[in-house]
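hey
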């Protein structure tokens, strides 16, 4: 009965939203430099944070992977958190989210999943305007392998308790959902936090992918809980969410979606921008960070 009521509520929320209106920063492909210019507020916040941050590289096959690691002030051990970026690659808004999570007392690792895919062997910063199309073309198995490589790195850090969690923003939220539902998941994973992207049974985040494709990503039973963060003004994810709820229910998986009223897609980025005109976005940011803190605390015990 509860599941039927949730499904009905999700359908009611999704149906009135006829078109998602992208913000100024989302119109057309932008270069890394343009994204960083738009996210100057995030660059300032990162610079003002007293937490220790360092760029690290690891090798996987013939690629050099790059990520920023942020350390909390506390010395207690806990799950390491992999914080994933949006479709346009690793920029300062994602790094800012990672710093905010590290301030809760957790080591965060923020990978550039586009590492070594640029023509010059670099990552996001060398992609020009092609980051989005590169992200959506990546094979799930390649992203899964990067996740496992960074998890293995994080599990060896002194402040790791031998477990990790994933926070995925937009594109990397969908990637994290496919990771936990797929064949390559690490036994050290304790929780996945999916922000405003489609989950199974949809298989990919293509630019023109609008409706879910039932049966294209069969959902098996798995033990790791998935926590969803969904803004009700995001047409695409709201249309896909009922199918995900049903697929997870049928597989007897733990899936806990929460819907943020009035918030837009990518609210973790746009909501902290002082120029954002929608107060529901910053409300969603604050509520989401508080929820992450509570849930990480539960996963630490």
């Amino acid at each position: 009965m509860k599941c039927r009521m949730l499904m009905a509520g999700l359908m009611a929320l999704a149906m009135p939203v006829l078109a998602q209106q992208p913000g100024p920063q989302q119109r057309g492909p932008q270069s890394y430099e343009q994204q960083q210019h738009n996210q100057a507020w995030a660059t300032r916040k990162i610079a003002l944070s007293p937490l220790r941050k360092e760029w690290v590289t690891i090798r996987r096959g013939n690629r050099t992977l790059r990520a920023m690691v942020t350390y909390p002030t506390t010395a207690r051990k806990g799950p390491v958190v992999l914080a994933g970026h949006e479709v346009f690659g690793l920029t300062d808004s994602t790094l800012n989210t990672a710093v905010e999570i590290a301030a809760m007392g957790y080591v965060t690792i923020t990978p550039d999943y586009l590492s070594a895919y640029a023509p010059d062997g670099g990552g996001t910063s060398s992609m020009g305007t092609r980051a989005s199309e590169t992200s959506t073309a990546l094979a799930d198995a390649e992203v899964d392998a990067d996740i496992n490589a960074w998890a293995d790195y994080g599990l060896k850090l002194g402040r790791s308790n031998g477990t990790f969690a994933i926070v995925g923003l937009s594109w990397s939220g969908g990637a994290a959902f496919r990771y936990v539902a797929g064949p390559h998941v690490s036994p050290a994973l304790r929780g996945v936090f999916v922000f405003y992207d489609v989950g199974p049974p949809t298989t990919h985040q293509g630019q023109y992918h609008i409706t879910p494709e039932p049966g294209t990503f069969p959902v098996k039973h798995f033990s790791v809980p998935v926590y969803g963060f969904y803004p009700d003004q995001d047409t695409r994810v709201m249309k896909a969410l009922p199918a995900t709820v049903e697929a997870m229910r049928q597989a007897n998986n733990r899936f806990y979606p929460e819907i943020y009223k009035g918030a837009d897609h990518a609210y973790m980025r746009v909501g902290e921008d002082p120029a954002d005109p929608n107060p529901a976005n910053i409300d969603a940011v604050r509520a989401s960070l508080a929820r992450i803190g509570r849930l990480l605390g539960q996963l630490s015990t």
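The first strand starts at residue 52 and ends at 60. Residues 1-9, 11-25, 207-212 have pLDDT under 50 and may be disordered.
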